[in-house]
Structures are given as C-alpha cells and as structure tokens.
Design goal:
Length: 477
C-alpha cells in the first residue's frame, strides 16, 4: 500500500529538511519487569499476581507465562549494550515489587535490589538516563491474598516499598514514575478480569482505582522524603473518546467513557477531585464510601512530570438494545455502570491488537492534558504498535511499525508546536515481550526476540529510530 506519510526506506538517502525536536528531547524506549525479566523464581523473588494469573489455565493465550520471558535478568549487559548501539538517551524500565520486597512487606531483598543497581550502573555507564517505574502491575501475591488494591492498606504497603527502592537507587536515578496505567490495574484487573488478578466486580474496580491513586500520592511523598531532588511523576493511559455521531445520546456515551477512562484519574491526580458527573454515573456501582477525608489532597500531591501512554482512540455510541453485543461491553466489563455503551469500529487501519491507528489522537491527548490540566512537563512514556513480523534472512523489515512511529512522532512534534511542553518520547517497546493476556503472540518490539534462542535482532524500525535520535528529529513530509 502506498502511503504518502511513510518515510523513505531504510538506507535510502533522504535530504529533505529535518523536523527538529527541542534540544535535550529525551528519546527512549520502555519495557516492564514481568514482560521481559524472566527468572521468576530466582534471586529471592516471590510470585506476583501475574505469576498466579498466567499459571491459571485459560487466563493467558496458549498458557504463556513470564517465567522466562526475554531472560533479561540474565542478559542485562548485552541488552544495555544494544540500547547504547541504538543511541537511546533514556530507558524506562520497571522494578518488580516481589523481587525487591518478597511478599510485599518487610525488609528489602538485597539480591533483588542488586539486580537493579547493576542495571542502573550499566545504563549510566553508557550515558543512558534510567527512568524507573515502581509499579507496572506486579503486585506481590500475598498482598492480593489480603484484599489487593480494593483494600486500603495496599496503598500504605506501596509507599513502604517506594521508600525501600528510593533508599537503594535514589542516589543514581533521577526520574521516577509511581504507577503505570492505573486504569488497567483497576478496571482490567478488578473490573473485566482480563488482567491479573482476574477479579470482576465494578465496585472493587472503583475502589482499586482510588487506592492505586492513594498509593501513588503516598509514594510521591515517600520519594520526596528519601530523595528531594528526584523528578517524580505518574503514567496514565489516555484515549480521546469521540461520539459516533452528534446525536445527544452518543455525545453522552462519550462523556461517560471519557469519565471512566481519562477523568477518573486525571481529575483526582491533577485537580484533587473526582468529576461530579462521573460520580453520578457510578452511583449505582458504589457510594464512594471508601474515599476518606484528606485522600484527594494526598492523591494530588504536586508532581514534577506527567507521563502519558497513547495507543489509540475510542469511538462510542449510545446503548442500542437491538445491537449485537461486542466483547467490550459484555459483562463482566471494564466500564462499570456504563457496560451498555457501544464501542464502534470505524474501518480505519488497525494494528495486530485490532487497535485503530490514530496519530492525530496523540496531538489531541497531549493538548488536552496541557490545556485543561497542567503546565508540568509531559512525556510520552509509551507509544507503539503490534504487527506480525517475519524474519527473512536474519532481518525483520517492519515497515508498518516504522510508519506508526513516524506518524506518531510527527503528531508529537505538532503538539510541541501547539505549545505542549513535551520533553521526551519512549517507544513501546524496546523488544518483543510478554504481552499480558496475549502472551508472546503479539509483538511490539523494535527489536525482535526469538523466544527459543533469545537472539535479538533490531528490526528496521529500530535502525530508523536510531537515526531519528541521532538527528534529533524526522524527515519533513
Ligand atoms: C500498555 C502497557 C504495556 C504494554 C502496552 C502494549 O497498556 O503499559 O505494558 O502491554 O500496553
């Protein structure tokens, strides 16, 4: 398919003037502990909810688990060397809570912390800025056994864990993210149950969302106490939500889903309140009795940066009693109280996840956060796409992924021109990895991983991205 927005093929000389990003723009790539580390039972690590979930038959496609994953735990040196070869300025990784604090309570596990010390030292040795995420979904199983995120105490446990990590790594890590995508933890983990721990109760999902944010606020305070110079933020996954038509009922459906997907988190974190319309929508699910005085002040503890993960857009329509049910709105649902809203497909190109490709949505999303919520520096902490890759003669020519990155980086640049203080971009993902409920069947990496041999092959997109980083920009259209 010819695509006028595509960049020239790799290796083809391109002399169009570059689209330049601001000086010091932080070019990175991201991963998460459970998705790449493996070594699930080594070095004192104990199970997280994702170990339990992935080992439960029927939960993950083909019964895949993160037991071995990309074996990054044993390949840290070569993996960082690869990052350096690509010229990454920063690497966003997550710390496995049950590796550094087995069971989720008590003292730190020195062996677990040593792994991250070595990783950070290796990164710094190659001039790569470490960007540490404390929680990318791997709650220690014993904390789930006593209630998980719907239980208030989990928030306090998270702050204790944050202190342990800050004490160990605060001298060498500048950028800290508390939570990755609390929407997924709360609404996929406790609402639809398609993610660990696989529970499905709307009220629990709402409680989980609140306690995740409370844990975030307490962790921000703990990080600041341990390391006053740390740059602290949170990462939310945001979607523009568009009504399928201008009909008032469709517009209202969009308002509801926007409330649950975006404003449920943005408002408490950045304004210190829950939106009134969202609370009204959720009235039949919960009375918000779990919210205590002072919680919202803790949740909105000032931040230094905000991370945005962007993948796609939601287009929604009003409930239609005659329509075929779609997977999204079959109960149990990740949209408590709004299960009957319909998610509409527009027939535009999709990725291998079936997610619509919508680069303008990134401009909209970044502008919204900046214009409606905050002047803080923003970072795209994840953006990327799954496509089916083929290894041919030891090469992977992932033109579709490369075009996705290209289009979204152009969108990021457009947002900057519109006044958004966007300071960096992290591609998801550095390498193919365990894609949660999809196991290893979906590939998001710029680097191909052969899961039998653990051989890594940088795809065309990785080579192209290295060139983007080198020139701090893109070829103009
Ligand atoms: C995000 C997750 C990340 C990865 C991408 C595809 O929701 O943060 O771990 O799975 O989606």
């Amino acid at each position: 398919m010819s695509n006028p927005a595509s960049p020239p093929a790799v290796g083809v000389v391109d002399d169009r003037p570059p689209l330049t990003f601001p000086p010091g723009f932080l070019w990175g790539a991201a991963t998460a502990a459970y998705q790449i580390e493996g070594a699930a039972a080594e070095g004192g690590r104990t199970p997280s909810i994702w170990d339990t979930f992935s080992h439960t038959p029927g939960r993950v496609v083909e019964g895949h688990t993160g037991d071995v994953a990309c074996d990054h735990y044993h390949r840290l040196g070569p993996d960082v060397a690869l990052m350096a070869e690509l010229g990454l300025k920063s690497y966003r990784f997550s710390v496995s809570w049950p590796r550094v604090q087995p069971g989720g309570t008590g003292p730190a596990n020195a062996e677990g912390l040593d792994f991250y010390r070595r990783l950070v030292d290796e990164l710094l040795g190659h001039g790569i800025e470490p960007w540490l995420t404390l929680y990318h979904w791997d709650l220690p199983q014993p904390l789930e056994d006593v209630g998980g995120w719907p239980a208030r105490d989990t928030a306090a446990r998270f702050a204790d864990y944050a202190t342990l990590v800050a004490d160990a790594l605060g001298d060498r890590v500048r950028y800290w993210t508390t939570l990755n995508e609390p929407w997924c933890s709360a609404f996929l983990g406790y609402g639809s149950g398609v993610h660990a721990p696989g529970r499905s109760d709307g009220a629990d999902a709402v409680r989980a969302g609140h306690h995740l944010m409370l844990g975030h606020g307490l962790a921000v305070q703990a990080l600041r106490a341990a390391r006053p110079t740390a740059e602290v933020g949170v990462t939310v996954n945001l979607y523009p939500v568009t009504p399928a038509s201008e009909a008032p009922a469709d517009v209202d459906a969009a308002r509801r889903i926007d409330g649950l997907a975006n404003r449920f988190f943005l408002d408490p974190l950045l304004r210190g309140s829950y939106p009134a319309d969202l609370m009204a929508d959720l009235a039949k699910v919960t009375d918000f009795g779990h919210v205590r005085d002072g919680d919202l002040a803790t949740i909105s503890t000032p931040l230094d940066v905000v991370g945005v993960n962007y993948y796609s857009r939601h287009v929604v329509a009003a409930p239609d009693p005659d329509a075929e049910p779609e997977p999204y709105w079959r109960a149990p649902s990740c949209w408590p109280g709004s299960e009957d809203v319909r998610f509409v497909t527009r027939g535009v190109p999709v990725t291998d996840m079936n997610w619509e490709i919508d680069a303008p949505g990134l401009v909209e999303t970044l502008r919204r956060v900046h214009e409606e919520y905050t002047d803080l520096p923003l970072y795209v902490t994840e953006n990327g796409s799954a496509f089916v890759d083929e290894v041919v003669d030891g090469q992977v020519d992932d033109a579709d992924r490369l075009a996705y990155f290209d289009a979204h980086l152009r969108a990021a640049h457009e947002a900057i021109e519109a006044g958004v203080p966007l300071r960096g971009y992290f591609a998801w993902s550095l390498m193919d990895n365990f894609e949660w409920a999809w196991g290893y069947t979906k590939r998001f990496g710029m680097v191909h991983v052969d899961y039998d041999s653990q051989v890594r092959i940088p795809k065309s997109s990785a080579r192209w991205y290295a060139e983007v980083i080198r020139r701090n920009g893109l070829a103009a259209q």
